[in-house]
Amino acid sequence: MFLARTMIAIMFLGSFWNPVRAQDAARSSQQAPPSTDEAVVRQFIADVTSKNFSAAEQRFTERMAQALPPEKFPATWNSVLAQFGEFQSIEGVSHRQAGEYDVFAVNCKFARLKGVLTVTLDAQQRVAGFNMSVSVEAAVSSWTAPAYVDSAAFTERAITFGASPWILPGTLSMPKGAGPFPAIVLVHGSGTIAGDQDETYGPNKTFKDLAWGLSSRGIAVLRYTKRTRQYSATVMSGPEPLTTKQETIDDARAAVAFLATQAGIDPKHIFLAGHSLGGYLAPRIASGDPQIAGLIILAGSTRPLEDMVLEQIRAQVARQHAEDTPQGKKAIADAENEKRIIEDPSLKPGTRVTSVGVPVPSDYFLDLRGYDPVKIAQTLQVPMLILQGEKDIQVSMVDFMNWKAALGSRKDVTLKSYPLLSHMFMPVAGAATGEEYNQSAHVEPGVIEDVAAWVKSR
Length: 458
Hints:
Elements: H1 7-12, H2 22-27, H3 38-49, H4 53-57, H5 62-67, H6 73-84, E1 87-98, E2 101-110, E3 114-121, E4 127-134, H7 136-141, E5 154-161, E6 168-175, E7 181-187, E8 200-201, E9 204-205, H8 206-215, E10 220-224, H9 227-230, H10 232-237, H11 244-260, E11 265-275, H12 277-287, E12 292-298, H13 305-319, H14 326-343, E13 352-355, E14 358-361, H15 362-368, H16 373-379, E15 384-389, H17 397-407, E16 413-418, H18 445-457
Parallel strand pairs: 7-10, 7-11, 11-12, 12-15, 15-16
Antiparallel strand pairs: 1-2, 2-3, 3-4, 5-6, 6-10, 8-9, 13-14
Helix pairs in contact: 11-12, 12-16, 13-14, 16-17
């Protein structure tokens, strides 16, 4: 199995299908008594983890079968195993009622991480929802504050922002003192797994490192839960097809608008810091929001997503010395075919295409046709800080050099790459393979210092 941590693959991984609206789930927090349906859930998990997919699929509702068709199920599950490691055991099952559905949270132990498989049953004991997330307990217990954090220098408070039905929770880290303070809104990379407010991945929390490190240095930081995590069911099944507007852009602008109203914040110095997909979209977000005083692009790609997927697959196959194996050849051929379909001029909206075997609305790719983040950035009259890890295996130095070629001569643009850092801006010992994501680390102190100094110089 090839590790394919691509933008699109991560975005849809963990959101196979779930009919329960997040707000309904929140209202149904009271634990119901154990359900006799638990045996059905355990058997379904047993079928999935033993890769008896045909048996598992027989339990799907019609809608679930459309969301995760037979030809995609094995690749999607293998993508989970690539990130979590091989399945080992079920550690516990909890049950709650959510309207007409029974929702089961199955705590599982994998070789690398603990995870929660959420299985939703309808009244006929059919599987109407199935998704995957990192265990909150595992993520919280393995993270400790980095040495560059001064917890006495700032406070935090929970916030919500946005308009119904997309109200999002988050946290505002505020330096102590009168202010007003410059501020940063953190915008996620792709994913529901890494879509919490801390951008948690395994034992690491990129956004929490950034928020606490920068707030220790006199900069307010707002981080929030991504819409595709908070409202995974509604986003995927809503009347509007999912595009980056719904996934990222609208909420990033709403976060900036909210921040501008908060006491102690300097509304003329609110910056947007986009990581990965957030960096790719940062110029698009800023082009429609004059409130944004500047951009911080962290490992932002410059090329179409389907090109990035193919590049990552080829690189992963090469790292595993699998170019001449049937599996390696098939992985590359599949990615090449998916790219052809996505780029086909006859591709129509309202259909589905695949990326790394994951079904994606065609509208997502159609919306991005013709989008060139570098060209948009060239039209913006705001300062920019563009940072890149040279050991990044998701967004490469090719993209950094594209930013540099187009913007390097501007006095209000600063570009810097870090020889030893990964996509998460954490140090990597030896060659990067993706396994470093599962090893405890923190955002490099130099990155914190560089961002803080740049913001204060504005």
